[in-house]
Amino acid sequence: MDPLERKFKELKEKGEGAQMSHVYYGDPSEEFSLKLIETLAQNGADIIELGIPFSDPIADGPVFQAACERALNAGVTPIKCVEAIKKLRTANLKTPIIVTTYFNIPYVIGFEKFISRIKKAGAQGLLIPDLPIEEAKPYLELAAKMGLHLILQATPTTSQERLKKIVEAATGFIYLVGLEGVTGSKLTNLNTTFKLIKKVKARTQTPVMVGFGISKREHAKAIINAGADGVVVGSAYAKIYTKNLQNPIVTLSEIAQLSRQIKAGCIKQNQTKTRRR
């Protein structure tokens, strides 16, 4: 059992959903990103999603688009992101890491070489938002051969046929995009999200994580109680540190507080009642 699978097993036994925290590495500096990841891991993040900055992040909203631009302007490269994983592992970070990148980056580097590098650095999975399931088969096979999870996504508009393919091929977890929109959008219609969770959970035992629009404890609580195995939070943290880009370190305490609150929302309802007795 690899670290990602072990994490989901441990959380299930404790009656908790997972919190995966997304960080675009290098925004506004590499030093800050490393401290941000450590802070999140120490304050409720069960999985770290390390994003490689890209010039055209089509699935991301204004907050993460700006984060990518700042990181790229600061000289961050895919190789520096891989080195960051090594640094985190050397610093004894045990938290599972999922690398998120748009397809152009591993394509230019060479997919096999890219997967090999992030695996050796200490990553457990890879998420490529712009890789459709219809084109994913050779990359799924290559990732599996190297012992890496290639995380697949489903959205509220995913057809039954495509969802069947995703469910059958998925390992690690399935990332549900909880709304129609981009990262950082407001999560206003939870019924749409609940229906998607129910639809996917009825078809698979693979853990289901829900992202896009989650920014507070109440969101996490509602989604976990609806049957999801975890939530993904990113823009909410970036919004905090971007309030002070000249000295983002001073925002870490506020980020830690929000992370703890969201993690509290990931404790399942019946487990909360048991703890109160």
Explain the overall architecture.
With 277 residues, the protein is α/β, with parallel strands linked by helices. Helix content is 49%, strand content 13%. It contains 13 helices and eight strands. The chain has an eight-stranded parallel β-barrel, surrounded by nine helices. The radius of gyration is 17 Å and the shape is globular. Mean pLDDT is 93; it is low at 181-185 and 272-277.
Task: Please work out how many helical segments DSSP would assign.
Answer: 13
Give the beta-strand count: 8
Mean model confidence by pLDDT: 93
The fraction of residues assigned to DSSP E strands is: 5-15%
Class from secondary-structure proportions? alpha/beta
What general form does the structure show?
globular
As a percent range, the share of helical residues equals: 40-55%
Oligomer: single chain
Measured distance between first and last alpha carbons: 34 Å
- Strand sequence of the main sheet, in spatial order? 1-2-3-4-5-6-7-8
Order of helices and strands: HEHEHHEHHEHEHEHEHEHHH
Q: Which regions are unreliable across 5 or more consecutive residues at pLDDT < 50? A: 181-185, 272-277
